[in-house]
Amino acid sequence: WFSSLLFLHEISLAIGFSIKDTFLRTYTEAIQNYNKNDERSHAVDNVQESLSCCGIQSYTNWSTSPYFFKHGIPTSCCMNSSDCNTQDLRNMTVAATKVNQKGCYDLVTSFMETNMGIIAGVAFGIAFSQLIGMLLACCLSRFITANQYEMV
Ligand SMILES: *[C@@H]1O[C@H](CO)[C@@H](O)[C@H](O)[C@H]1NC(C)=O
Ligand SMILES: *[C@@H]1O[C@H](CO)[C@@H](O)[C@H](O)[C@H]1NC(C)=O
Ligand SMILES: *[C@@H]1O[C@H](CO)[C@@H](O)[C@H](O)[C@H]1NC(C)=O
């Protein structure tokens, strides 16, 4: 029983690590390819707006994005959308006072860590119920096949 608990814990750590790793890679890529219009860019905007965060570790991560050279930091980073013009967002020094200071990666991962038990539980629950379903399907059909002869 204890070792299965340990196993569960290891699974949840592994799931957590791969989710975090995937998130970091996709988010970095999304910033590098940000264009304000495609679905991935909308996802970035949604995360930055809803969590009041900006960039990966900080807003400075936008400084290497091709989008920054053309348009500055996206408006979804703004602390106060009515006090945040595109001129401000092009200048890193000025932008520093106008955009969300927290990076999105830490916020997302700490949210995941506090909820990792639930996430792992759900993932495990789905796998487990599929297993039960498979067992039921298999044994039920065997049971029916076995009893067909008796019923005739
Ligand atoms: C984001 O910016 C921080 C601070 O400048 C830097 O340490 C970090 O490596 C950057 N992360 C990525 C994925 O570029
Ligand atoms: C946002 O900026 C506007 C214009 O400078 C200001 O009037 C307003 O109070 C600000 N709102 C917040 C929540 O800081
Ligand atoms: C950014 O703004 C500051 C303060 O207004 C200014 O001194 C600096 O020259 C600007 N930098 C760029 C690259 O425009």
TrEMBL record:
Annotated TM spans: 118-144
Keywords, ordered alphabetically: Glycoprotein, Membrane, Signal, Transmembrane, Transmembrane helix
Pfam family, one: Tetraspanin
Location within or outside the cell: Membrane
Cellular component GO terms, alphabetical: plasma membrane
Membrane topology: Multi-pass membrane protein
Domain of life (superkingdom): Eukaryota
UniProt signal peptide: 1-16
Purpose: May be involved in cell proliferation and cell motility.
Protein name, UniProt field: Tetraspanin-7
Natural source organism: Buteo japonicus
